[in-house]
Write a structure and sequence with these properties.
seven-stranded parallel sheet; 174 residues; single chain
């Protein structure tokens, strides 16, 4: 039976090395996410996959925050982040920087995550929405793609931090 590694045995890079390291060409945009614990969880996942940045929009809380730190475990210090008052301003900024924008939402004509074909020559930004209302329609209207995670149960949505983990893992490996 394999032995579980102790934390001290797991080698990780420093915050400084992380900031200098090559990043996965993926940005996560949080559109009015209310829960600071969800925000912290997204930072931690972004750190794990060495993403370029987390963009916080609207009412989404920003570091420093004890609640964000509780779930981020310091990832809010390694992962670059910025805040926009309006998500549409963030979308415009990222479009001008050459990012392909993908709303993660249930939309007419959306592409199921397993069917989404990522172009290896493009940079992507994924937009995750508010825990109740999802991604704003005016933001969806500005996106290049709408990606949906297939669901087979009785609920019509998943927690935003769980969704972020699924999307980040899937797009990072393609």
């Amino acid at each position: 039976m394999p032995r579980k590694l102790k934390t001290i045995e797991i080698e990780r890079i420093s915050v400084e090395d992380y900031q200098r390291a090559k990043k996965t060409p993926l940005i996560v945009v949080l559109d009015n996410v209310r829960s600071t614990y969800n925000i912290g969880s997204v930072f931690r996942t972004a750190d794990a996959f060495r993403l370029e940045e987390v963009v916080l929009c609207g009412i989404t809380a920003t570091p420093p925050s004890n609640e964000i730190h509780k779930t981020a475990l310091g990832a809010e210090e390694s992962v670059s982040w910025t805040h926009f008052k309006e998500t549409t301003d963030a979308v415009e900024y990222l479009t001008n920087k050459g990012y392909t924008l993908c709303a993660i939402e249930q939309c007419e004509g959306s592409t199921m995550l397993g069917d989404f074909k990522k172009d290896p020559d493009k940079k992507y930004a994924v937009i995750l929405g508010n825990e109740v209302k999802g991604v704003q329609q005016k933001v969806i209207d500005l996106c290049d793609h709408c990606i949906e995670i297939p669901q087979y149960g009785t609920k019509h949505s998943m927690n935003v931090s769980v969704t972020a983990g699924i999307i980040i893992w899937s797009l990072s490996r393609k």
